[in-house]
Amino acid sequence: MIRLSIDGSVDNQYGKAGVGIVWNENKQSKPFKFPLQQEMDNHQAEFWALRIAIELLKKAHKEGEIILCQTDSRTVFDAVEKNYHPQNTYNRLAHRINEDLADFDQFNLLWVPERDNRGADNLAKQALQMQS
Fold it and tell me: Which N-terminal residues, if any, form the signal peptide (predicted)?
């Protein structure tokens, strides 16, 4: 089983963004941080955190594994679960994520409170600082 914690961070309300991912597998933890080149809002950064996590899983050929992925973004969780969001940009991201998730046998997205996602949050903030 693979447990992922994901988070996105943005400079102010709209601007530079970073993504943090903590990958836990076989009692080992791997941190990832990615500065994003495009300016965006925080919700978009959270969606991109999930997209990048899915990309990492695919590159590692983990589509057949049991995956628990936790996010502290209620917007991302709800949009992906419903495959819908009324805001067009988020709706497109949710659809793309669900298309990517079709390749996975057992991918479970979980919502957690911010306090339970601090590792990914710290990595996302570090990724944001890498751009300064």
Answer: none
pLDDT tens readout for residues 31-60: 999 999 999 999 999 999 999 999 999 999
H-helix or E-strand spanning residue 75:
helix 74-82
Q: What are 17's two structure tokens?
A: 């963004």
Distance, C-alpha 81 to centroid of its chain: 14
Contacts with 33 (C-beta within 8 Å, 6 or more apart), sequence order? 18, 19, 20, 21, 123, 124, 126, 127, 130
35 is a domain residue:
no
Is the CB of residue 57 less than 8 Å from the CB of residue 63?
yes
The predicted structure's pLDDT at residue 13: 81
pLDDT band of residue 73 (cuts 50, 70, 90) is very high
Tokens 């309300």 belong to 13
DSSP letter assigned to residue 21: E
86: helix, strand or coil = coil
Rounded to an integer, what distance in angstroms lies between the CA atom of residue 74 and that of residue 12? 19
